[in-house]
């Protein structure tokens, strides 16, 4: 691109940010074309043109004033149009002939009031311009055929309609841009909310995985420490359980973190992301818990049906968290029961134990419950369920949650 073209583009961009300067240059250019035409060219002979006065200094001043008023056509379009109408009416009364400059200024004034003002002001300006134009045609001594009169009137109306349509188009485009900006802001807010929700979900998943498996490993390690001197075989078995539970915990943590990976990452690793656990994995969970020495029994009532994937994961994690808390707080010789009730439209999950069932179950003081119970409430509420947690009659603690089968 040549330096001349780059300079011209830069100048046009500069004028676009300064519309009044652009209008002033346009008015000066129009005047530079109109004044020589007014004084140098002779009027046509006949058809009444000989009745006009010869152009003089006053005529030139009036033409210059009318034309240069276009400098303010965007800031005050109605006032500029009225000024142009008054100036041209004065020239018509004085008998001066029309020129290219004042006729073009009149049409630009009609366009400006329609393009830069609302319907009320643009309608007033258009009506004033049309009435003036009819009066001007009557006042000038030039003989015009009806076809010429109709064509000239249609030109004035057409210029007004053009300005009005361009104004409506600009308003429509501005509304589209504003709507796009609002949608962009809303999308940003939704994305932030989704990130916050995803972080909370991942935090719940990690808490459930880590708390459960670490609790199992802690119980097994304590048992191995107590019996390692007198029963090395049982201690080795406990150590094997710790190793297996640790590997399971790492596997589940990789699966949770794997949700954050992209499909490209999964392809590079050459494997698909594993699904989340559900009630179908409940048997393996209870086997891990039984290996710690906690007696757990499972009852399933009603016609077993597959819940929605979200409810399936939430129910599994709730049972996992409840059994983890039982391991932590129920004490030795405690027993636990897990019950699943399948109703017509809902699934009820109950986890109870006959341990100590104290306030330590919540993992903190009264005003600061542990993350486990908070995660339970969040999971159940997320799928429109109900959750009740509290001591059992006769001792122990219980967790009861109802999930709709379809979240």
Summarize the entry for a quick read.
The chain is an alpha+beta fold. Among the domains are: 3-143, no CATH class; 279-407, Histidine kinase-like ATPase, C-terminal domain (Heat Shock Protein 90), CATH 3.30.565.10.
Give the SSE map.
Elements (H helix, E strand, L loop, with lengths): L2 H14 L2 H22 L16 H12 L8 H18 L5 H17 L2 H21 L6 H82 L4 H27 L4 H7 L12 H10 L3 E7 L7 H21 L5 E8 L3 E8 L17 H12 L3 E6 L5 E8 L3
Parallel strand pairs: 1-2
Antiparallel strand pairs: 2-3, 3-5, 4-5
Helix pairs in contact: 2-3, 2-5, 3-4, 3-5, 4-5, 4-6, 5-6, 5-7, 6-7, 7-8, 7-11, 11-12
Keywords:
407 residues; alpha+beta; 5-stranded mixed beta sheet; 9% strand; rod-shaped; transmembrane; kinase; HATPase_dom; histidine kinase; Sensor_HK_TwoCompSys
Structure report:
- The chain has 407 residues and is α+β, with helices and mostly antiparallel strands.
- Among the domains are: 3-143, no CATH class; 279-407, Heat Shock Protein 90 (2-Layer Sandwich), CATH 3.30.565.10.
- The protein contains twelve helices and five strands.
- It has helices spanning 3-16, 19-40, 57-68, 77-94, 100-116, 119-139, 146-227, 232-258, 263-269, 282-291, 309-329, 371-382, and strands spanning 295-301, 335-342, 346-353, 386-391, 397-404.
- The protein is rod-shaped and about 135 Å long.
